[in-house]
Design brief:
EC number: 6.3.3.2
Helix content: 25-40%
Number of strands: 11
Protein name: 5-formyltetrahydrofolate cyclo-ligase
CATH topology: Rossmann fold
CATH class: Alpha Beta
InterPro entries: FTHF_cligase (IPR002698), FTHF_cligase-like_sf (IPR024185), NagB/RpiA_transferase-like (IPR037171)
Largest sheet: 7 strands, mixed
Number of helices: 7
CATH architecture: 3-Layer(aba) Sandwich
Strand order of the largest sheet: 3-2-1-6-9-10-11
Shape: globular
CATH superfamily: NagB/RpiA/CoA transferase-like
Strand content: 15-25%
Keywords: ATP-binding, Magnesium, Metal-binding, Nucleotide-binding
Structural class: alpha/beta
Number of domains: 1
Radius of gyration: 18 Å
GO cellular component, one term: mitochondrion
Length: 293
């Protein structure tokens, strides 16, 4: 497993605790994020499972042509995110999180998988979403109504990722890539619940990514961690005859691209909806059914 920096983790988690404590105070557009900026390698997000996009195919290797198109789009979106005005970014972060927190499909979800945002990767902030779940203690005798939160933990360099349940920011540590993730054991020395071994289904996935279109296609960062995990969870839902969770991607306005710009393969997993600063863009029938218009 990756090595961890105790000093770095302490500083990050202390900052997270302070943000959780501030969750009930008035917020401004320039409010601090739950997790401080840190150097981080790229996090991998899910894509789409739609058929190959139309493109100029390589005469000898159509798959390489797809990968080339993906690399070009990643480069373009990274530049746009880097050049994004900080005030605008803060405004869009606040708008997106408010939309999610007030949405009926979020409020009705009992079990949620969500990413821990990395400012260094210029991901849409999830600090308020994470804080809102973790800072609300269950009412006495009402434990069943407390939401479950699972967050990603990278297992290796071969696209393997787990989603482990956390109940507090104290459950988070810093991995070798300087990204906050759940420790294997909680403060009592017990293993965190793995979502793939949970007895109840997940209702909602909140997903990151680099680019999205209005057909549900999604461009990740190239490592396939989310693709592989979401495929595993799809298989689990089939085996247990569960309803598939709603997959909602969080997107800055500059990340929404024209249809056909995102090349996909059969390994890519689509999203059901986009949460953008302008509102929610429902895509799949499942999104329409859950009042996302």
């Amino acid at each position: 497993m990756f090595s961890h920096s105790r000093a770095s983790a302490s500083g990050l988690i202390n900052g997270a605790k302070e943000a959780v404590a501030l969750i009930t105070k008035p917020r401004t557009l320039a409010s601090r994020t739950l997790f401080p900026s840190r150097l981080a390698n790229e996090r991998l997000a899910s894509h789409s499972h739609r058929p190959y996009a139309t493109m100029n195919r390589d005469d000898n290797d159509p798959i390489e042509a797809i990968f080339r198109q993906k690399r070009l789009l990643r480069s373009r979106i990274r530049k746009e995110l880097k050049n994004m005005d900080p005030v605008r970014r803060s405004e869009e972060d606040a708008a997106i999180q408010s939309i999610v927190l007030n949405a009926p499909w979020f409020q009705s979800s009992k079990s949620i998988c969500a990413y821990i945002s990395s400012p260094a990767l210029r991901e849409v902030d999830t600090s308020r979403i994470v804080s809102e779940i973790l800072s609300k203690p269950a009412n006495e005798g009402d434990v069943q109504n407390r939401k479950k939160l699972y967050v990603p933990r990278v297992e290796d360099r071969n696209s393997n990722m787990r989603m482990l349940r956390i109940s507090s920011v104290d459950d988070l540590i810093v991995n070798s890539m300087d990204i906050l993730e759940p420790a294997l054991l909680d403060s009592d020395g017990k293993q965190h619940e793995d979502v793939l071994e949970a007895s109840d289904p997940v209702d909602l996935f909140i997903l990151p990514g680099l680019a999205f279109d209005r057909c549900g296609r999604r461009l990740g960062r190239g490592g396939g961690y989310y693709d592989l995990f979401l495929k595993k969870y799809q298989e689990l839902t089939k085996q247990r005859q569960w309803k598939e969770p709603l997959r909602v991607a969080l997107s800055y306005s500059v990340q929404i691209v024209e249809e056909g710009a995102i090349a996909v393969t059969s390994n890519d997993v689509s999203v059901d909806a986009l949460a953008s600063p302008a509102g929610v863009i429902p895509i799949s029938p499942a999104a329409q059914e859950r009042s996302m218009g």
